[in-house]
């Protein structure tokens, strides 16, 4: 099974991707991870992507597709894969379709985790991160130690700029602009399966598995 997992920042997409991939017995493939892996392997595409990332620039779609092709042609993706973080735009979705078609494959479904802006801002604005090891805390679900120091490495627990309400709203605006056409694209191809993103991790995972079984 070959799947795409869509969802706004703060919907828990990364957590759901890992759990779903394990349940289905296929690898979860994120663009960030495949860029790092390609760079570590020292492939030509990996070195080129590293150049863009080191300069703080977005990796062009053509290069991203090339690295994605390398990844999903590996043996562990023979039975399928779950793409997390790609595609993000309509041109990327079209490029993915062409890539899979060239391999004699096709997408099985695009699962969209739907969540309202108010809930997303509430979730992300309460997130805190260790500036040393990157451990994540949440003021309600998993609060940091009272002294503001990470219990794993002793680093400072901070609120990232990305998690401030104003920044979150700007990120969401960009996401909605990019993703609305993408959602309609997959709906038009009868591949879209939308689930409610409210509730616990277990509840959302159960909904995803249910829609994939229909």
Can you walk through the features of this model?
With 214 residues, this protein is an alpha/beta fold. The chain has helices at 13-24, 31-41, 44-54, 61-72, 90-102, 117-125, 165-188, 201-212; strands at residues 2-6, 28-30, 81-84, 109-114, 127-130, 136-138, 157-158, 192-196. It is 49% helix and 15% strand. It has a five-stranded parallel sheet, sandwiched between helices. Strands 6-5-7 form a three-stranded antiparallel sheet.
Content-based structural category:
alpha/beta
Percent of residues in helices: 40-55%
Task: Please state roughly what percent of the residues sit in beta strands, choosing from under 5%, 5-15%, 15-25%, 25-35%, 35-45% or over 45%.
Answer: 5-15%
Order of helices and strands: EHEHHHEHEHEEEHEH
Number of helices: 8
Oligomer: single chain
> Alpha-carbon distance between the termini?
14 Å
Q: Rounded to an integer, what's the Rg over CA atoms?
A: 18 Å
CA-based shape: globular
**Main sheet strand line-up:** 2-3-1-4-8
Q: Let me know the average pLDDT.
A: 91
* CATH superfamily heading: P-loop containing nucleotide triphosphate hydrolases
Question: In CATH terms, what is the architecture?
Answer: 3-Layer(aba) Sandwich
Low-confidence stretches: none
Q: Report the CATH topology name.
A: Rossmann fold
Largest sheet entry: 5 strands, parallel
Summed up:
By secondary structure, the chain is an alpha/beta fold.
Summary keywords:
15% strand; 8 strands; five-stranded parallel β-sheet; alpha/beta; Rossmann fold; single chain; globular; 49% helix; three-stranded antiparallel β-sheet; 214 residues
């Amino acid at each position: 099974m070959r799947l795409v997992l869509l969802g706004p920042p703060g919907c828990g997409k990364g957590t759901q991707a890992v759990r779903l991939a394990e349940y289905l017995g296929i690898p979860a493939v994120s663009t960030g991870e495949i860029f790092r892996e390609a760079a570590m392997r020292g492939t030509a595409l990996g070195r080129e992507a590293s150049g863009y990332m080191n300069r703080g620039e977005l990796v062009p779609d053509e290069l991203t597709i090339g690295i994605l092709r390398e990844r999903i042609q590996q043996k562990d993706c023979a039975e399928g894969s779950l793409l997390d973080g790609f595609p993000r735009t309509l041109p990327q979705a079209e490029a993915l379709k062409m890539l899979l078609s060239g391999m004699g494959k096709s997408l099985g479904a695009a699962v969209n985790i739907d969540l309202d802006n108010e809930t997303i801002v509430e979730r992300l604005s309460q997130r805190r991160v260790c500036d040393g090891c990157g451990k994540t805390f949440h003021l309600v679900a998993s609060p940091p130690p009272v002294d503001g120091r990470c219990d794993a490495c002793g680093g400072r627990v901070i609120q990232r700029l990305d998690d401030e309400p104003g920044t979150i709203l700007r990120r969401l605006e960009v996401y909605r602009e990019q993703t609305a056409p993408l959602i309609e694209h997959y709906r038009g191809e009868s591949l879209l399966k939308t689930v409610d993103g409210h509730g616990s991790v277990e509840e959302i995972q159960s909904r995803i598995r249910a829609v994939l079984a229909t």
